[in-house]
What does this fold into?
Amino acid sequence: MEENKDMKEYWKKNVALIRNLLIIWASVSYGVVIIFGDFFSKIDFFGVNVGFWFAHQGSIITFVCIVAYYAWRLDRLDKEYGVEE
Amino acid sequence: MSVEILTLIFVMITFGIYAYIGWWAKAVDTKSFYVAGNDIPTIANGAAIAADWMSAASFISMAGLIAFLGYDGTVYLMGWTGGYVLLALLLAPYLRKFGRFTVPDFIGDRFYSNKARAVAAIATIFVSLTYVAGQMRGVGIVFSRYLGVNIELGVVIGMGLIMFFAVIGGMKGITWTQVAQFVILIVAFIVPAVAISLKLTGIPVPQFAMTFSDIAVKLGEAQIEAGLKEYILPFQNMSKLNVFMMTMALMVGTAGLPHVITRFYTVKTVKSARWSAVWALLFISILYTTAPALGMFSQYNIIDTIHNSPVEEMDQVEWVGKWESTGLLTLDDKNSDGSYQVSGIKDENEVGIDKDIIVLSTPEVAGLSPVIIALVAAGGLAAALSTAAGLLLAMSSAVSHDLYYKIFNRNATEKQRLRVARIMIFVSVLAAGYFGINPPGFVGEVVALAFGIAAASLFPAIFLGIFDKRHNREGATAGIITGLSFTVIMLVLMKSVPILGTETPIIESFLGIDATGIGIIGMIIHFVVGFTVSRSTSEPPAEIQEMIESIRIPKGSQAPQGDH
It folds into this structure.
């Protein structure tokens, strides 16, 4: 039963991590670029504006960081709970 | 050496490489045919996913589409990359642990229902067939534009090549060919982009040039002066609601596309499935962050060169004449004032720019050598062929593995199954080629259908199958059927002009949502119906619940339980 409890905890931590990362994913893409796009496009960012930069560059870079962080974090979580291969 | 001969040499060399790889990687059993023997290294799988994903449309048309949409072009940029976050976090690792061959495999086993398997197989076939017709057409167009052969012959040559490496090599041959194709397509995309960036801004990195130079401001001014919309302000070309819905539909649709999901079965471990999603998105982002810069530069360059320029002067410019002759650039001095004007008003606009010209003309507009032009042609072919191959395999495995073996003939031997798989690839290539040569009028429209269907049927079913242990056969079946029928009916009604041949669309939009975003409503219906039905029917059998527990834990994936 001990192992079972550990697995529940592992899964809980995993789901919490996924939820947090998806909140970042949605805030950048749907938040900054779309819902608050009118607001962020009024703020200058070098030759463009913040909204436009996220729409055409920043969101994609954020996505790469999210998946990389998840893969890295899960490698550690797997080891912690002894479920790595 | 002329451009045609150089192009021919480039195309022959790259085709030789693909054919050699196909022969070297020949598949000997169903496991290597469907999932490359779970033996593909992580980075190679990342590159193969990237090549699989980036189609002729990404390579040739996307930069142009973005150039016309400005800020709102983000629907493609975020829509076609953001889905990988969903894939990497929600689906890929668990499907790898599940460790079978196809997407319908998961749906059929998880919901202990061959009906669900059959519906998933049909959705897979439909989505892939829609997509692949466009790819074969893309191959034909590149051939005709650069080598002067007609489109039909171009499609046939492409078919022959795909047949060779896909039928012999199966997933293994396709994967390694895609790795080579990724390298070729990305180099072919980056080199001209760097060159035009240097020429216009003096900065060699396109991503930096679009942000830190004054090119965006200059383009904005040129657009306003010509009476076009603002480039860097939001919602000029699409409503906020539709930008939102379409972005989400493309993201969720991406995460539900069978030819992409299948790729995660091909690696050794769960860890490797996670990391191959990282590599894939990194590789894809190279093209997807360059494309908006390229779109911006080309749009500026073309407006700047042609707007208010005297007719005689333009007739002297070589690339203007060449692209006019292909019909992708149309110039017409309507008001006879001796010069061409770009205008936002249709009747006054004298310069027609096709979206495809943005990428295809860049090397010439930027004054690059014919070698680069030949490279772009080879890159476009690589993009189209790699995507087509992945789709054909997804389609044929849905027929040969899910419908034939799992439903009709459970006693088929390994040899029989491999033979059926090869025959199905062969048939799929013929079908794809047929639609490439005789494209149904609505091919462009049905891509929205492909994403809508994937978003409303496959993604929610797989997601709930992993994260909701209580989700059962009844819930999944009800969810798939309601989500799918709503989406298909809405799309047919909104696109009734090309599909049913009516004079005007039967309905314009659903609560202000266009066809491109309607899959999201279908997805919501799927979630709501699926959840409600599953809670009011009996819970899934104990062995299914155990299976769900086991796919959530990475340990033990190296011995897939799949029968092979």
Observations:
- The radius of gyration of chain B is 24 Å.
